[in-house]
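User: Predict the full complex structure for these chains.
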Amino acid sequence: MKNKKSSEGVYIVSIVFFCYLHSQEVELDETKAKVDKVKEENEKLKLLLSTVLAEYNSLQMHVYNVIRQQNESSMKLDGNGNGNNEDLDVDISLRLGRSEHKISKKEEEVRKIIAENISIEKKEGSEKKRSAHGLGFRIQSFEDPNTDQTMKFDYHFREVKNKDVENKCLSSRKDFKTARNEEHHEVLEGHEQPGLKKTRVCVKAPCDDPSINDGCQWRKYGQKTAKTNPLPRSYYRCSMSSNCPVRKQVQRCGEDDTSAYMTTYEGNHDHPLPMEATHMAAGTSAAASLLQSGSSSSASLSHFFPFHHFSVSTTNSHPTVTLDLTQPNYDPNQLPNHPLSSSSLSFSSSDHPSPSNSHTLSFSGLRPQAPFTTYSHLSHQTRLSGQQ
DNA sequence: CGAGTTTGACCGGCGC
DNA sequence: GCGCCGGTCAAACTCG
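Assistant: Here is the predicted structure of the three-chain assembly.
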C-alpha cells in the first residue's frame, strides 16, 4: 500500500512539474515574441531617426543659400521701386520629409498644440523670459499670411571639395600656404563678394569661461596679443573635418569687462554639424548671408536675433555682424507679428545634454510674442588654458 | 604615444 | 620700400 501511495505521489508531482515547465515555456515564448516585436520597432525607429538626421543635416547646410535667394528677391523688389525691404517679414520653416502644400491632419493637430502652448506661454510671459538669451533661427515668408508658404527644398549635401592638399607635393612652406589659401578661396567661392573679405560674425557672450561650445570641435592653433587689446586673442579652427575652413577667434572684451568674451566666427562648415551646432551656425550664416546680400538693416536682422543688441560694421573690408548677448534688447515693437496659424517646425537642442564635465550656458530664448520657441544651448567644452 | 596647447618665428596686407 | 600688425605655422611641450 505504501509503495502504491508513494508511486501515485511521484506521479502527481511529476505531472505538476510538467505543467509548471509547460507554463514556463509558454511564458518564455511570449516574452521572446515581445522582445522580437520591441526589437523590430527599435530597428524601425533607428531607421526613421537616421533618415530624419540625414535630412536635417543636409537641410541646415543649405539654409543660408535660401536666405540669400530670399534677400536677392527682396533686393529686386527694392529695385522695382517697392523700397519696403524692412517691412518684408522673412521666416523660413524647415520641414522634414513633407510635401510642399499638403498639410496633413496630424500636422494641423501639432500646429494647434504648438499654438495652444504658445498662448499659454504668452499668458505666463514673464520678465525672466524677456531677459533670456536667444539664438533661435527660423525663416518663413509672411508675405501672404493666408498661404502656407513653407518651402521644401531639394537638399543635397554640399559637395565637399576633395582637394586633398596634404597629398600634394609641396616643395616649400610658401607653396603650402598658397595651396591652403586657394583651397580656402574655393570653399568660400560663391559666398563672398569679390571686393570683400570673409564675412565675420561676432558673438559677445557673458560667461566666466571663454570656451563656449557651439557644438563644434575646435583646435587651437595660435594665440596673439593684439595691439588694441592687451588681453590675448586665441585662434581656433574647426577640427571636425580635416579641410573645414571655419575659424574662430576668442578674445576677452576688455580689462574692465572680464566676464564677457567676444567670439568671432569666419567661414562655412564643409561637413554636417551636430545638433548643438546647428542653431549657432545657421544663425551666424543667416546674418552673414543677409550682410553679404546687402540687406543688413537692423529690421532684417532683428528677425534672427530679436532680443539682442547687434550691430553691423565693415572693418578692413571684413563685413561683420556683432551679436551682443550681454545686452538683452527686447523690444516688442521690433518683433514681427507672427500669425499663429503659420507655425511649423522649430528645432530644439534642449534634449541633447552636454557632457557631464562641462559647464552649460543655457540661452533659453523664448520669444514672448512670437509663436515659436527655439533654444540654443552653448556649453563649455573646448579645452583651453586657464589664462584665456 | 597621440592629441592638444604653447609660443616664437614667419608671412602678407596695409598705411605711410 | 619700410615698418607695423594681425594671422598662421610648426617645433617643443604637456597631458591623459
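Residues 173-174, 177, 219-223, 239, 316, 383-385 of chain A lie near DNA strand B (CB under 10 Å from a C1').
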